[in-house]
Amino acid sequence: MFEIKAPATSANLCCGFDTFGLAVTLYNTFKVEKCDKFIFDGKEEDINNTNNLILTSMLTTCRFLNKKPIGVKVEVKSDVPSTRGLGSSATCVVAGIIMAYKVLNIEVDIDDVFNIASSIEGHPDNVAPCIFGGTTLSYKEDTEFKYYKIHTNKKYRICAFIPRFKLSTKKARNVLPDKYSREDVVFNIQRASLLPLSLERGDSEFVKDALQDRIHEPYRKELINGYDDIVNLTKKYGFVGTYLSGAGPTIMGVYEGNINLRKLDYDIKKLKDKYDLYPLKIDFDGVKY
What we know:
Layout: E1 2-11, E2 20-34, E3 39-41, H1 53-65, E4 72-78, H2 88-103, H3 110-121, H4 127-132, E5 135-141, E6 144-150, E7 157-163, H5 169-174, H6 182-201, H7 204-210, H8 217-220, H9 227-236, E8 241-244, E9 251-255, H10 261-269, E10 275-280
Parallel strand pairs: 3-4
Antiparallel strand pairs: 1-2, 2-4, 2-5, 5-6, 7-9, 7-10, 8-9
Helix pairs in contact: 1-2, 2-3, 6-7
Catalytic activity: L-homoserine + ATP = O-phospho-L-homoserine + ADP + H(+)
Keywords: Amino-acid biosynthesis, ATP-binding, Cytoplasm, Kinase, Nucleotide-binding, Threonine biosynthesis, Transferase
Pfam families: GHMP_kinases_C, GHMP_kinases_N
């Protein structure tokens, strides 16, 4: 038996649409043992079947390795809520790939894991931080997926404001326009250029400026009840900034120093729209196996 522990991830970081991502200290855990068939046990409905992302990713990897699949029994502890913009699918994809290597007794090639996972997901912005930890910039060059780790000052903390409703990525994609003005594109380029250096230096004034967007958040926030209430609360409590996690609906707050999280949670509970507060840190290690 072995265990794989994959962190939740938060993509975009506001200005870095489909580019930036970071891993946080919230995990899906997969306990695996060899078996004569495929058995999956977890609380999420999309895990308790043989057409789940864990198995399909494992089988894809077996084909990549040109090896016959071996049956497994997988117990999944899901602490990363699904369809909330926190990379739950990326944890399943990454775990399934690593699972294939482990049950076949093949040394894990982490760069191959990244490329296989990016191909399955269709984009690398969640799988890169899930695998490598910390904050990442990732992209596709021709047919090759690439990533770069951004050094992030460890003084920053994250609060996830997770609503009790789901938002499909497809719906969040469909609200985006087909074209953007030059002004809006330049606005995002400026801030996406600023974010990595300001995160590394811990210059919160510039991090605050960088956590702005005109490409996706102005359109997606209209799908998220309570968005303005949460953002206004974070301003009241002195957060550096907020952004939509992935396609939403989770809102991430970036802060430093001490914030009265108990009082903040009390104020959140008074809002019309129900959100759960998750105090988190950046996971700098990535997937463990």
